[in-house]
Write a structure and sequence with these properties.
There is one protein chain. By secondary structure, this protein is an all-alpha fold. It contains five helices and no strands. Helix 1 runs antiparallel to helix 2, helix 2 runs antiparallel to helix 3 and helix 3 packs antiparallel against helix 4. The chain is globular and about 35 Å long.
Length: 92
């Protein structure tokens, strides 16, 4: 994930989110950082929370990214099964 290389480091992003939990950009960047470190559960959780709070943010980017992570991990991955259910519940 080369996109992560240009982002602030995780500690800085966590501090920004702690200061302002509504900073959607920082939350998304934190999720990208987590993905780059293969911290898939943390990233999926971060993305799902962002999606639930603000579905339309950045043209639905959290939702699109969740689906990309599902594809990356594959349908048989236990996290995919768990987070697909959570995403479905959030959608309906």
């Amino acid at each position: 994930m080369s996109q992560a290389e240009t982002l602030p480091d995780a500690a800085e992003l966590k501090a920004r989110v702690a200061q302002n939990p509504g900073d959607d950009e920082a939350v998304y960047q934190l999720a990208v950082r987590q993905l780059a470190r293969q911290q898939y559960e943390a990233a999926l959780d971060t993305l799902l929370k962002l999606f639930v709070r603000n579905r339309a943010w950045n043209e639905g980017l959290p939702h699109k990214t969740l689906l990309q992570v599902f594809d990356l991990l594959g349908n048989d991955h236990p996290l995919v099964t768990t987070y697909r259910r959570k995403l479905f519940a959030a959608l309906y």
